[in-house]
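>> received
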Amino acid sequence: MGQNVPGTKCPSTTKKGKNVPGTKCPGTAKKGKNVPGTKFPERRKKMKSLEEIHKIREEKRKELDLRVNTKADTREKHILICHGTGCTSSKSPEILENFRKIIEEKNIENVRVIMTGCFGLCAKGPIVIIRPEDTFYSNVKPEDCEEIIQTHIIEGKTVDRLLCKDIDGRIVNRLDDLNFYKKQKRIALKNCGVINPECIDEYIAFDGYRALERVLREMNSDEVIQIIKDSGLRGRGGAGFPTGKKWELTKSYESDQKYVVCNADEGDPGAFMDRSILEGDPHSVLEAMIIAGFAIDASKGYIYVRAEYPIAVKRFQKAIDQAREYGILGKNIFGTDFEFDVEIRLGAGAFVCGEETALLESIEGKRGQPRVKPPYPAEKGLWGKPTLINNVETFANITRIILKGAEWYSSIGTETSKGTKVFALGGNVNNIGLVEVPMGTTLREIVYDIGGGIPNGREFKAAQTGGPSGGCIPAEHLDTPIDYESLKTIGSMMGSGGLIIMDDTKCMVCLAKFYLEFTVSESCGKCTPCRIGTKRMLEILEKLCSGEGSEYDIYRLEKLAVNIQKASICGLGQSAPNPVISTLKYFREEFRQHAIEKECKTLECKALSNITIDPEKCKGCGLCQKHCPVKAIEGEAREKRVINQEKCIKCGTCLTNCPFHAIGN
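>> returned
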């Protein structure tokens, strides 16, 4: 079957599943161990010279032209299968193996099966794309492989039943024809869904390590920093600090040792941007870390990633091993006197370790708690040495800026927020997935043009940006441009990129309670305002949701929120009240209904709910009765239904299934 030994070859098959010459990638079967007295791991294979890397790029790029060119002059076909976490959980590895097995059994030539990173449209996964024709098959199951091979590969026809149905009802053949992709611009996600993330040669084929070569052979560190400054790139971890300025500041401090740290501790509920980049294009982050090391005079790098991301960890470790074997990590990189190496440090999942100084404490083997600042990490960071910290998405932009120039990058976005932003789009939206849009794209465009609108004909109510540190955006601000300043103006923040959409069935008091529950459980406990203050806020919200609150509790909430913002040590504590403040600002009436009228219109707060069916709106369709898990809805066919309050458990299933909005409080 041509199965690959982990870490030895690119997962590609053709001619009875055998690997095509030139597709072999350096592996990790023999990991380089540290040799006593040396700084860098011993290399087990011959380093690649620049000439050899240039040759790989040229030959491999010709071979992979069909991945990006629908008119490629080739008889070969590539079957690309998403191997991100989402599709992997839906049996994409089994789909890949089925394709390989069938290709071998049928003795089919000129067909290769490739694993890739995330294509973005997670709602339609597992996704299979066949190149060069770019045919897009959605919701593929392992048992569909036989039909795809027979119909598409052998007979040259499309499998119509597996083609993707767009939100407007059109059946779409090609990836680029989907509305989901039309307003996107991929920079950080450029290679995701295009290359095999476990093959360094495929990364090299698409300009991989060209930026590093240019930096090392044509530029000095000040020139590199100036390009990043001129580009206008700001940190994508949440605060939006200018990246070039941070690099410049770190370089300015003299030290015998400096560090580059990549923050991959992505802990926001619903966020999966950094994970997808590491799973789909790990070498782009690694290359950027090396460039950053050169810019600030560092020789050592660490990537701090949570252990809950096993696929990302595995692929980044493989990228490190491959780069070492090619001589791209270690001493004398590309024949220069520059040296740099990278190690992975696994986090245990504490949300607070996403804060940069808590992350440094964790790398040092201490309890992950924030440090008092100043001094900032640029001056005194890892083990007391100057340390540059950027997150995954920030690093993923670096190589494109170096190759295409600061002017190109700064032409994208708004006056103060340059480039693109990756969002994990989730919640009550049709097209759940990973999107990358130019800064300044409006929330309406993301929700309706890209996200496909709200399911089941419901109304948009709010969007939560920035996770537990952000705020909610109501419908009145749907046309707000998504950039750092605009979001701050309306009481929200960019955050790392989680974007949760909520329809009119969601209770804003419950939303605030959900995020406070998260914050309370994740507080490191170092400072009193965060440790105790958020707990008191949560208790008030629980009272409101259980019908025991009062109007005075709303006042107490606001007072506590202001004090916690002012007095907490770190950014996480200071931003913890944001969801409460923003929901109070835009949905105060819901809080008053909970506190005074003891009523929750959305029926999410069970203690305040009394679910009934409006006889004037009920059409007697019976869908509510069909879906009720406790048989609490009574009535005969074509008759108006009635809810038996003694049996009703207030789960809200009937509410979500009624197409006529006849059920309410």
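>> The longest helix spans residues 578-597.
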